[in-house]
Amino acid sequence: MSALQKLQEKIEQWRRDHEELKIQNANLKSQLAGVAEAQKANESLVIEVEAKATQCTALEETVATLRRELEEKDAEIEKIIAQVETLLN
Questions:
Q1: Percent of the chain residues past pLDDT 90, beyond the cut
Q2: Distance CA 68, CA 52 (A)
Q3: Fewer CB within 10 Å: N-end or C-end of the chain?
């Protein structure tokens, strides 16, 4: 095999390698774009979860307030019932 043929084979191998690298590069770019999209979606979900957690905390506080008010009203009703019973006796 002559030096020219060896050189041509090396050049042809470099071309094949270059084409393979271009394909790999395109695949990596596609994967990177997918990762970026997934990261954006993840950040969006984190924001949504934080908002839901804040909303849940506010609702829990409302429930606690309503329970306290209910307990107060129950105590008032018990006092009224006791007063009525006293008046009836």
A1: 92
A2: 24
A3: C
